[in-house]
Structures are given as C-alpha cells and as structure tokens.
Amino acid sequence: MIKLSKEKVLLLHQLIAEETGGSVGVRDVGLLESALNNAYATFGGEELYKTKEEKAASLGFSLISNHAFVDGNKRIGVYAMLTFLEAEGIKMNCTNADVVDFGLSVASGDMKYDEILKWINKFKK
Predict the structure, then answer these.
(1) Which residues contact 56 (CB under 8 A, 6 or more apart)?
(2) What's the pLDDT tens digit per position in 5-49?
(3) 21 phi/psi in degrees, rounded to 5
(4) Is the pLDDT of residue 1 over 90?
(5) In this structure, what CATH number is given to the domain that contains residue 113?
(6) Looking at the domain assignment, is residue 102 inside a domain?
(7) Residue 50 has pLDDT above 90, yes or no
(8) Is residue 1 part of a domain?
(9) Residue 38 has what pLDDT?
(10) What phi, psi does 23 have (nearest 5°)?
C-alpha cells in the first residue's frame, strides 16, 4: 500500500491553495505527521486500519480534524483521501456536491471515522 509522504501532502496543499485560494502554511508539523501516520498505526503488531478503505478514512478524518494547516484543512483532507484511494485502484462515484458535503460534515464533527468509512464504501465503484 502507498503512503502519502509529508512532502507530497505539503506540495498538494500548496497546489490546492494556488488553484482555489487561501493561505499556504503549516500551523503544526506534529499534527500533520500524526495525521499521516495514524492510518498506519499498529497495536500489538496488528494494523489498526487493515484495508485500503479504512486507511483512507483514517487519513481523511485525521487531516481534516487535526487542523495542521493554517488554511485548507478540509480541502487537503478530502483531496489526500481521494488521491490515496485512486492510487490504490479504488475509483469513487461521487459528485462535487457529495465531496463538499462530506468535507463540511467531517469538519463540523457530524462525521467521524466510522461514518467516513461508510461514505467511502457507499461511493466506491
């Protein structure tokens, strides 16, 4: 399975900000690293998130919820999650409106990890 590096996510964040507006910059590097590593966490030698979908849900939730960036946390969280899924061969069948609603729901606390996983499974092809 792929793992999005901090450098790639920083580049994605910069490109998204240039395209859509907003400030570029990391508010807390530790929170960014935590968000990126959480999807690969283990306990007792066992992966906590075993499937690609579980890792993607963890990645999206952590990037949005940790607020590691000065601006654009929802955008980078959603984009990184969808990029991870696509790189792993999982195509999503959702509209732009579905994606916007998803990002807003996670950021507001209405969607947690379990709901994100359900959302991924609902919209994957």
Answers:
(1) 39, 81, 84, 85, 88, 90, 120
(2) 999 999 999 999 999 999 999 999 999 999 999 999 999 999 999
(3) 95, 170
(4) no
(5) 1.20.120.1870
(6) yes
(7) yes
(8) no
(9) 96
(10) -90, 145
Q: Are 45 and 37 in contact (CB under 8 A)?
A: no
Q: What is the largest CA-CA distance in the chain?
A: 43
Tens digits of residue pLDDT in 107-120: 899 999 999 999 99
112-119 long-range CB contacts below 8 Å, 24 or more apart? 112/61, 113/57, 113/58, 113/61, 116/57, 116/60, 116/61, 117/53, 117/54, 117/57
Query: Does 81 fall in a domain?
Result: yes
CB count in 10 Å sphere of residue 87: 13
The predicted model scores a pTM of 0.93
Structural domain for 83, as ranges: 6-123
Domain count, the chain: 1
Domain-embedded: residue 93: yes
Query: Rounded mean pLDDT of 85-104?
Result: 96
The gap from C-alpha 19 to its chain's centroid, in whole angstroms, comes to 18
